[in-house]
């Protein structure tokens, strides 16, 4: 046992993929990623703040107020963002958030967040909709470029999962967008293996 272990708190902000929609175990990927990091060296609290249907613009309006409610000043506070899929939705020929606006919104969110907390960004995954996937691939690349410019670690989930047969099979079987438990486990494993995520829990408490 460790005397007075660090009190780490993480808020996960995003959409239905963060919330774990479609997972019969109700764990999604944030819970699985946090379970994998259990250690007596620290106390870890995580808050799943994913909302189904949320776009980047909707997350921008709420994230800071919701994080502030959960982050005491004396604790080790971090934020993970994951959004973009709903920006790419199209209804009656109209995209919910155009890519240029999505990038500007992400820039505002990430710039503000980085000034306050350690930040990670997990990119949007593929669905069973080919047109949506083309938009998601483009947006994911743009998010990656943005994060690189801002010095924020970015995890591209699109490319690994589009070639992951289990993810794609479950997405098709559930609702065309969300996987079941095994798909979320595959996404969680990407996060778990990500050096930027692992470094958050290292002895040196690295932020990148």
Short note summarizing the structure:
By secondary structure, this protein is of the alpha/beta class.
The number of distinct helices, counting runs of at least 4 residues, comes to 9
Helical residue percent band: 40-55%
Number of domains: 1
Radius of gyration, rounded? 16 Å
Main pleated-sheet profile: 5 strands, parallel
Uncertain residue segments: 203-208
Query: What name goes with the CATH superfamily?
Result: SGNH hydrolase
CATH topology (fold) name? Rossmann fold
Distance between the termini: 27 Å
CATH class: Alpha Beta
Pattern of helices and strands: EHHEHEEEHEHEHHHH
**Strand ordering within the main sheet:** 2-1-3-6-7
Anisotropy-based shape: globular
Q: Please report which band the strand proportion falls in: under 5%, 5-15%, 15-25%, 25-35%, 35-45% or over 45%.
A: 15-25%
Number of strands: 7
Secondary structural class: alpha/beta
Mean pLDDT: 94
User: Do you know the CATH architecture?
Assistant: 3-Layer(aba) Sandwich
